[in-house]
């Protein structure tokens, strides 16, 4: 049974500030390639971190809303771990 999910992903766009929209779409395609059905993408913009995390002062926050089977989430997480542009990721059922 498919469930509704929300994912907050922080992208490291250092050196690629002009390509943020492309990065957002690439991550969306990666989520879909594992069997999820994207419903909405909301870009929340660049935010500074409270402290430098792994030598990074801030990141571009994006919310992805999608439907997927529960077993797909681990596949998506593992795939995004391999993407150098993804700094942080968090998934929750909504």
- Biggest sheet, spatial arrangement of strands: 2-3-1-4
Query: In whole angstroms, how far apart are the ends?
Result: 14 Å
Give helix and strand order, one letter per element, not per position: EHEEHE
Number of E-type strands: 4
Global shape: globular
CATH class: Alpha Beta
CATH architecture: 2-Layer Sandwich
Q: Main β-sheet, in a few words?
A: 4 strands, antiparallel
Explain the overall architecture.
The protein is globular and about 40 Å long. The protein starts with a strand and ends with a strand. The model has no long low-confidence stretch (mean pLDDT 93). It has one domain (3-93): Alpha-Beta Plaits (2-Layer Sandwich). Helices cover 28% and strands 50% of the residues. A four-stranded antiparallel beta sheet has the order 2-3-1-4, with helices on one face. The chain has two helices and four strands. With 94 residues, it is of the alpha+beta class. Strand 2 (37-53) and strand 3 form a beta hairpin.
Which features would summarize this protein structure in a list?
2 helices; 4 strands; Alpha-Beta Plaits; four-stranded antiparallel β-sheet; alpha+beta; 94 residues
Write the layout of secondary structure elements.
Layout: E1 3-11, H1 20-33, E2 37-53, E3 56-68, H2 70-81, E4 86-93
Antiparallel strand pairs: 1-3, 1-4, 2-3
Describe the structure in brief.
The protein is 28% helix and 50% strand.
């Amino acid at each position: 049974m498919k469930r509704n999910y929300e994912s907050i992903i922080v992208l490291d766009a250092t050196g690629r500030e002009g390509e943020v929209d492309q990065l957002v779409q690439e991550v969306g395609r990666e989520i879909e390639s594992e069997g999820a059905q994207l419903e909405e993408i909301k870009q929340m913009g660049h935010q500074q971190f409270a402290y430098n995390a792994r030598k990074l002062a801030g990141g571009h926050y994006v919310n992805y809303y999608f439907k997927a089977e529960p077993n797909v989430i681990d596949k998506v997480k593992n795939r995004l771990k391999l993407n150098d542009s993804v700094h942080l990721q968090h998934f929750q059922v909504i």
